[in-house]
Amino acid sequence: MGPGEYAAHDTVAETVRVEGAxxxxxxxxxxxxVQLAEDAVQEATLAALGAWPVTGVPPQPRAWLTVTARRKxxxxxxxxxxxxxxxxxxxxxxxxxxxxxxxxxxxNDDLLRLIFTCCHPALSxxxxxxxxxxxxCGLSPSQIAGVLLTTEAATTKRLTxxxxxxxAAHIPYRVPAEGELADxxxxxxxxxxxxxxxxxxxxxxxxxxxxxxxxxxxxxxxxLHGLLPDQPMPAAVLALLLxxxxxxxARLDERGAVVTLxxxxxxRWDTAAIGRGIALLNDSxxxxxxxxxxYQLQAAIAAEHARAAGYDDTDWTEIVRLYxxxxxxxxxxxxGLGRVVAAAEAAGPATALAMLAELPPNPRWHAVRAELLAxxxxxxxxxxALAESLEGPATQPERQHRERRRQSFLQLAEPPDDGxxxx
Amino acid sequence: MPQYLALTYTADVDWWAPEQAxxxxxxxxxxxxxxxxxxxxxxxxxTSTATVVRVEGAxxxxxxxTDGPYAETKEALTGYYLIExxxxxxxxxxxxxxxxxxxxxxxxxxxxxxK
Lengths: 423, 115
Known about the structure:
- The complex is a heterodimer of chains A (423) and B (115).
- Chain A has 423 residues and is mainly α.
- Helix content of chain A is 70%, strand content 0%.
- In chain A, helix 11 packs antiparallel against helix 12 (271-287), helix 11 (232-246) runs parallel beside helix 13 (294-307) and helix 17 runs antiparallel to helix 18.
- In chain B, the strands form two sheets. In chain B, strands 2-5-1-6 form a four-stranded antiparallel sheet. In chain B, strands 3-4 form a two-stranded antiparallel ribbon.
- At the A-B interface, loops of A face helix 2 of B.
């Protein structure tokens, strides 16, 4: 491939990733079959990859891809001789043969259908994430396997089974009625949030964070909020992701080492994203009439950090209050640890250590305990706690950070060595 | 319209025992309330009456029967309903009215359409 061909390849890849979900969403509704529609979009992509480096990228790549995908779908429908509903297939053929592109409001409805089908409660949570990455973000099974820390074979199997279940069990391709949204949105938001968390705070692996998973989660959050702008929960999820993402550039130094919040260069935070996140959070809170959900509370905590000009300017009392609310609304181990860390700043390490004792230990718990013990000057115990935390899984940069902290605590624990002078 | 088999998994009860009368009445009420969607249904005798049949080797081999259920589990298959519904969501709404849904579990399986 020459350089020009690479450029064409990138344009195809990017156009398909942006347009793929739109084209797929409408095609699934038209042909009534996820697998068939996905195959047709996939074939259209391959056709573009073959043709465009020679012909150049057409002036309207979306139209080209849509029409080509429809033709591939017609071919596939004709190939399948045994189909129970011939009459309906006839109607599908007519719809597929239309030369025009669907208008935006139709595509948006189809995208919402696709979101709610992929995130249907009858599918397991990991399956929902895998399906969303495949159909809504256009990632390949091997890319999805990278995000979800599994194998390509396992991902392909999971996707195949999910498509079979959608077809066999007739999971509807439909946007829930307004009254059902409250029941169905949490599953959708959980997919987006867990995807971001998988990228932002992976349990282990070489990288401190996985850029792709975070970007894809924000892409999905933008899409969902854009489609349902008046719903508070998608706005809160997008706010939370933007406020967290805004601080990401400062989480690692230029050599890839972990920089803790108290030492971060706040000039590297993305102030535009922070401003947008806070505005979205305020909109979301206004929409939910004072009853904050877990995403709004987490976004509010992130906003408190993002607002502070420096670490010492942080309103820790407010952050503890927000964590108290979060623990009463949606208790989790991570929220419990966050509350302990905030309490250490608001009320001192002794109070925080007492609160920590009430949570079950895990590697992060030991790491938090180590920092609290060190603040009390108990360096030997702090080093031991870090040794315990290093026995569990953690990312490579996080392990190196804990190891450095352990070394410095060990040095601080050593009494001054006067032996040489006496001798 | 798609069909679903709703399998009820509950404690391994004898539906004819007097203490089951109230619950059995609830299942009957369910069947009446959803008569328009139910194509077939039955409650089953307890698993102590079950016989597992296997044929050794291949077709025509020795028939081997064993006493008791196929699998010993805490919750047993105690009945089934063949439900017709527009889609899975409708089938779930109907199945959620079965007393087994809160006394145990209901497994909803799509039935393969005959070609």
